[in-house]
Amino acid sequence: MTQHATGTAPTASASRYLQQLCKHWSHKAKAEFTPEAGSIRFDSGNRLQMTALPDSLSLSVTVPDDGDLAQFQDVVDRHLVRFAFREDLVITWS
Fold it and tell me: Strand 37-41 vs strand 56-64: parallel, antiparallel, or unpaired?
């Protein structure tokens, strides 16, 4: 079993942030990406999938049952906000 959450971040720079995050984590996780979509899979079992839309970045995070979903969401949040220092990026999770 797994824990799952989805999020959305309104931005016109979704593709840039998606690619930056995939490149950033590619040294410690398996990252695959195109300008439109990306996925990052960590050895811990944590996974992040992203889709770049014209006006937002769509996020989907999954962690194993024994993982900490809130912590992983926070790590994703902090990295994306750091990459988006030119704007006030806000990620809404559900």
Answer: unpaired
Residue 94 and residue 31 in contact, taking contact as beta carbons nearer than 8 Å:
no
Q: Is residue 9 helix, strand or coil?
A: strand
Residue 76 C-beta-side C-alpha neighbours within 13 Å: 33
Among candidates 23, 58, 63, 21, which has minimal Cα distance to 42?
63
Provide the domain count of the chain: 1
**Digit-coded pLDDT (tens) for 3-53:** 999 999 999 999 999 999 999 999 999 999 999 999 999 999 999 999 999
8 is in which domain, residue-wise?
Answer: 2-86
Residue 7 belongs to a domain: yes
